[in-house]
Request: fold
Amino acid sequence: MTETGEGRKKELEEKLSQWLEGPFARAQAKKWQKAFTSYREEVKNLYTPLDGETDYLEDMGFPGEYPFTRGVYPTMYRGRLWTMRQYAGFASAEESNRRYRYLLEQGQTGLSIAFDLPTQIGLDSDHPMASGEVGKVGVAIDSLADMEILFDGIPLEEVSTSMTINSPAAILMAMYVVVAEKQGVKPEELRGTIQNDILKEYFARGTYIFPPEPSIKLITDIFAYCSEKMPRWNTISISGYHIREAGANAVQEVAFTLADGIAYVKAALEAGLDVDDFAPRLSFFFNSQMNVLEEVAKFRAARRIWAKIMAEQFNAKNPKSRMLRFHTQTAGAALTAQQPLNNVTRVTLQALAAVLGGTQSLHTNSYDEALALPSEESVRIALRTQQILAHESGVGATADPIGGSYYIENLTDDIEKQVFEYLDKIENMGGMEKAIESGYVQKEIQKSAYEMQKRIEEEEEIIIGVNKHKLDEPTPGDLLAMDPQVEKQQQEKLVRVKEERDNKQVKGKLDSLHEAAKNDENLIPHIIDAVRVYATLGEICGVLREIYGEYRAPTF
Amino acid sequence: MDEKRIRALIAKPGLDGHDRGAKIVAQALRDAGMEVIYTGLRQTPEQIVSTALQEDVDVIGLSSLSGAHSHLFPRVAELIEEKGRQDILIIGGGVIPEKDRSDLEKKGIKQIFTSGTSTQDIIKFIKENVRD
Reply:
């Protein structure tokens, strides 16, 4: 409560109880439906100043100032709009390059690269396990030769590029650096992000290669290298998106993401880095689900919690170290295969929540993604949704526009409290690595996912077109289909690269990488040297597999 | 009840890491009284079939959201046929375009369940189609 004295508070309490017994009770007698947050907290019918004890300066403050509840920049979207960044990539580098150029022409302001699964798992396109997966969920990259085609004609000093790559993040970043070099762009000028968030792969996304310890070593190598050579590069995108997609609720999404973040900060400190050298380049990635107000509160709470963790637990002094900057993607899991055009509305609401929540960049899903890879038309509508929000809706005119709402502040406090409870619990287990190893995190998510499914089947939770207002509808046409020749062509390209390169040089570079890995050196310069002579992703990962071994996931 | 419990294998062929659906289906089948084995991620069709035979399952549920279904699902059916075990019911789920469905069904995948399917429908289908 801000300015009301004790007397006014008492008066409000009396009036509220009269209202609850009077008009509210009469309405309630007619119809009473309970409402819950995603983390199963009951939502009250009305929030007033009696809910919570918000201290404006301490809990909210000003945009651009600690604890950043109201946003990380003083001017927010008046200063600069969020970056519109559509995750894209499929088939070959040529095909994806065409899609990126199209998106840039259509007014997109940053690139976001989707790699196919073999690339994400460090396998070349001719590996037996890659069979059937080449170019399917993203673009296939085997060597620098593919990366050169991927960014052909795209000026890397002008665009910022986000790459969804985790276990082999160092390798793809190295290829990006060399491609830029060939365009005459220096590493210190490069802007972009690598996801590089291995921990969530073990419990929510699945593209791990090596065991946790050497994987985290590779991450801290990147932190160290970039803090010196690539000051504008986001070295990691600590991701709650996939945790939420795997079935977590909003509290779990924030808690497990920040717990991963804490684990990386600890690892970097143990590797001897100074917190204010690497923390300003940490970035985050969240999901935006259907409950608009809860999501706004979630983003606000996440910022405040991270600021407190960095200031209080890790003693970060640089304000930038305390800022939680984040990318948002609308929830893929909320898209329905039934009546797919309804997804345009869903995506609009989710995108609205992200903007009201102060996101730095945004991907909006295409309406047809529960059916197939998105078509050019559906991708354009998704991008237009953001442009309409930015230029027509007016929601970006003022910072944190719904901050100060009794409900929003109460929800923000509530999420913060529950996230800290999870964080304490994980700390007591010995940290996030231990919590994952024991299966605790997996089981918590699975429980939420299964309970939600049951509520949907029991119609406690309504999804239009799925369990209410169903239609018999014709099969949608015009879906994007993948050329089955892609895999073969990619394999042929790989053969050519191996013929044309200097194989003696490649062997030399791979040998020195092997040595460096054995001696626990920072591997990034060695990886850059290897990709420059066209060593393939599979070869480089092969060297690391030899030394680090492969992770085998237990099933819980 | 002296009815033999149905044994099910839920499997993730290929490199796809999306296992929310697979785990939900596994749990729902367990709650419906079946014995369920979940393979975990990154299984080859050969590994899946070998597990299925070893565990003597009545039904295999394949899940893929990476677009590799047309390549991986029929291979499982083929191997099952090679072993002469066409009595094992094979079903599939994931992001699977309608036009691929009839082809998969022709190649031995008895039914494809996509996004929005109730787990009760899957349970019912298995109970009706598993050979006694």
Remarks:
- The two ends of chain A are 46 Å apart (CA to CA).
